[in-house]
Each structure stands twice: as structure tokens, then as C-alpha cells.
Amino acid sequence: MYPAAAPQQVNLVPIVRDDDVVRVRQAVRTAALAAKLSLVDQTKLVTAASELARNTLIYGGGGRAEIEQADNGRKRGVRVVFADEGPGIADLELAMTDGYTSGNGMGLGLSGARRLVDEFDIDTAAGRGTRITVTKWAR
């Protein structure tokens, strides 16, 4: 068990241009190193973050990533929230289907990103935007 951590600062990365996706990847990698994630888990989290950041840009019309250290009292990790005010996901069930992709991303789709992280939560509605929260825990 880890001692309780002090409240962590959130690293807010706007996602409005293609190069912002690279900035999100770099910020997530830095946070994953600080959380002492293994190289494999760092790669999984950065890959998921890249896909979700690109989705935020392409489908949400831009938005932001909020990156923070996570601590549940037993383990530490990294939590990343992707938020946009775009059109939302009209058919979430279809979007979460394994293998489904619109063809514009890395080919992972939401279900692929979900498989790469330990926790995945999505809140979306047509006309309200989308908020996806992912967490990867250190092993």
C-alpha cells in the first residue's frame, strides 16, 4: 500500500491542431514515467491517449486532455480525461464494437483504446459532446 499522495496538479493540454496530439502523447508519457508505469504500460497508455486525442480533434472538433496522477490508496497510476463539446457519439454501441473504426484514426477505435487501459468511462450524448476518462495503474 502506498501512503496517501498529496493532491496532484492537472496538466491541461488543449487539442485544437494536429501537433496538439503529439503534445498530449508527450505529456502522458511524462506522467506515466512519474507514476512508475512499466515500459509496456507506458506504451499502452500513450497509444490509447493518442487515439483518443485524435478522436477529440477529428470528431469532437477539438477539446482538451486533462492529465493527472491517480492514487486510490493502494496503487498509483495516471488518469487522462478527454473532453470536447462536439456533436457527441450518436451510436455509442456501434462505436464501442470491436474492430469498428471510421477509418480516420489509428485503427484502434474506442474499443481498442479501452482494451489498452485499466479503467475506461465514456459520457456522451448527441449535441452535448463527449467526455472519456481512462486510467492506467502501475503494477
Automatic annotation (TrEMBL):
Matching InterPro entries: HATPase_C_sf, HATPase_dom
Domain Histidine kinase/HSP90-like ATPase: start-end pairs: 40-139
Pfam families: HATPase_c
Name the record gives this protein: Anti-sigma regulatory factor
Organism: Virgisporangium aliadipatigenens
Gene from which this protein is expressed: rsbT
